[in-house]
Amino acid sequence: MHTLYKGYIRKKVIFLVVIGVLLFVLGVVATSTGTIRIPFNEVVSSILRFDRMGSGRIVWDVRMPRVVAAILVGAGLSLSGTVMQSILRNPLASPYTLGLSSAAAFGASFAIVFFGAGTTTTSTIIIDDFFTVAMSAFMFSLISTMAILFLTVLTKISAESMVLAGIAIGSIFSAGLTLMQYLADSIQLASIVSWTFGDLGRANWHILSIIALVLFPLTAICSFYRWDFNAMDTGEDSARGLGVRTGVVRIIGMAVASVLSAVIVSFFGTIAFIGLLGPHIARRLLGGDHRFLLVASPLIGASILLAADTVARTILSPMILPVGILTSLFGGPLFIYLLVVGRNR
Amino acid sequence: MILRIQGVDFHYKSVSVIKDVSFAVVEGEVFTILGRNGAGKTTLLKCLNHILSPQGGAVWLDGIDTRDMRPVDIARRIGWVPQRGDISRMTVYDLILLGRKPYFRWSPTQDDYRKVEEAIDMLGIGDISLRYVDELSGGEFQLVQIVRALAQDPRVILLDEPTGSLDIRNQYRLMEKLGHIIHNHPRAAVMTMHDINLAIRYSDKFLLLKDGCICSAGDRSIITPENIREVYDMPVSVVEAGGYPLVVPL
Fold first, then answer.
1. Dihedrals φ, ψ of A257, to 5°?
2. How near does any CA of chain B get to the CA of A289, in Å?
3. Count of CB pairs separated by less than 8 Å, A with B
4. For the domain that residue A281 is a member of, what is the CATH number?
5. N or C, where is chain A less crowded by C-beta within 10 Å?
6. Peptide bond before residue A318 is cis, with ω within 30 degrees of 0
7. Domain that holds residue A70
């Protein structure tokens, strides 16, 4: 029996490797695609040799930051969604549905209106003081997280209370965002709207290193709790009967998922549905075992966002669409499709 | 004595559910808690392994006060079989492997896999072990939950209505196997049950619970028409059938 089980595990590992390879191939294709097409071999050669001359300059300074951003942001949002759905036992939990995106958007608009961090040029909208906006968005996301955690501790840390607290706080920040938009002048309003689009075009190596420094340790923490997440999937009482401190795991999981998504949303704005689609597709393909889910879901989220961003960059070339528009446009119908397919299984 | 419960109280907000309950369970014993719906049977069971923390009294496990034990240490000694566990998208083998979670931190060891295999063999469910849990029937799922509890290698197994989703044939088969496992290993079982006659046949000791209080406790001799009428508030007669008392509603 153990041998059969080992074979079953091996198949899952092979599947993960295949997804990883596909993501790499997609990354090369995305880097090669654009207004100027760069052959695949040149892309791979530039990456491997750290060549920043000629087409290598486009690869390293223009395309790669965006491609790496799509991978890190997609992986981070998807991981965050997976953890939230597990600890809250709710398939609709994600940074977006729990109001973290609303809090970040409020924080960004607050900085634009009150700190004068937004401005505009004639052809494109530019956030003038990007780090002030990002910091403000991050601070308000953290406030939102703290409020959710505080309310859940106050109400005995049940999954239901966490979801309800998230929805309530998200609603308050949405109202705050509307107020900021009302108070803003036309230039500030344009900046706010531009920020909320969700755009990977803001990526640079500095921002990406910050995201990576947050993503990797938090992924390790999530991996540490993978068996606890599996136990919690079998029900609250079952998990407690297996010695899991469900309240503690829920608080840690929520804090990790929230900080991760807060950092991402603060830099790149609202990118909807990735935190839902990644985990749902991963569960459909590999089941609910978090040993694999916590790897598969980020890989799938990264692939979806990378594919979406590549389409956003090229579909109306030379104009580049913010990827947030595309994920919202196609994410909704795709999610409905997954729900219908899941229901008919 | 494996388990000693002394003066346990539990209340939800101001509603008292368990009132000053005391009893003891010894090795090799199948102990059944009987009572009407809402009598507090499941709550009492959950107090024994601190899924719910009693507000009064104490539970001793092998002479150790469970209030001084970490949840993981309790889970190494007490297995829990809920009436209805949540069904997740994982294989039967993965679910049973979770029973070894109290013993490992990062990954299961060879010893954990060996214990899982032993538990699977005990109830003979090897043929379904690589199926997904959400594809099982209610009865199969219940068996898997019991096997997971056995994989915990516990001193005590707590079972909340273990035969609730089984047909009559499988009810008797399961209780037969469970009795064999308890009587031939250094462990005990505490369970709640609605089917009095099934309980009488396979249990060594009984506790009759009414409104959170002990009405009566002891061996089969406490299964009398008077006690049953007291607990269930209905007239019955107790007749002899196949060497066992049989409770017949009047």
1. -65, -40
2. 6
3. 88
4. 1.10.3470.10
5. C
6. yes
7. 1-343
- A233 and B90: CB-CB below 8 Å? yes
Domain count, chain A: 1
Contacts with B51 from chain A: Cβ below 8 Å: 237, 240-241
Show Cβ contacts of residue A166 under 8 Å, excluding neighbours closer than 6 positions: A93, A97, A98, A99, A100, A148
Q: Cα separation of A131 and A23, whole Å?
A: 30
Q: Between the CA of residue A200 and those of A24, A264, B3, what are the distances in Å?
A: 18, 10, 60
The answer, for A231 touching chain B at a CB cutoff of 8 Å, is: yes
- Rounded to 5 degrees, φ, ψ at B217 are -150, 145
Reading the block at residue A332, the tokens are: 């909704």
Please judge whether A230 and B51 are an interchain contact, meaning their C-beta atoms are less than 8 angstroms apart: no
All structural domains of chain B, each given as residue ranges with its CATH number in brackets, are: 3-77+155-249 (3.40.50.300), 85-153 (no CATH)
Full-model pTM = 0.89
Asked if residue A279 lies in contact with residue A78, where contact means CB atoms within 8 angstroms, the answer is yes
Whether A156 has its CB under 8 Å from any CB of chain B: the answer is: no
Q: What tens-digit pLDDT sequence spans chain A (345 residues)?
A: 678 889 999 999 999 999 999 999 999 999 998 888 888 888 888 888 888 888 888 888 889 999 999 999 999 999 999 999 888 888 878 877 788 888 988 998 998 888 876 655 544 555 567 788 888 988 998 898 888 878 777 776 677 777 788 888 889 999 999 999 999 988 888 888 888 888 888 888 999 999 999 999 999 999 999 999 999 999 889 999 999 999 899 889 988 988 898 889 888 888 888 998 999 999 989 988 999 999 999 999 999 999 999 998 888 777 788 888 888 888 888 878 877 776 554
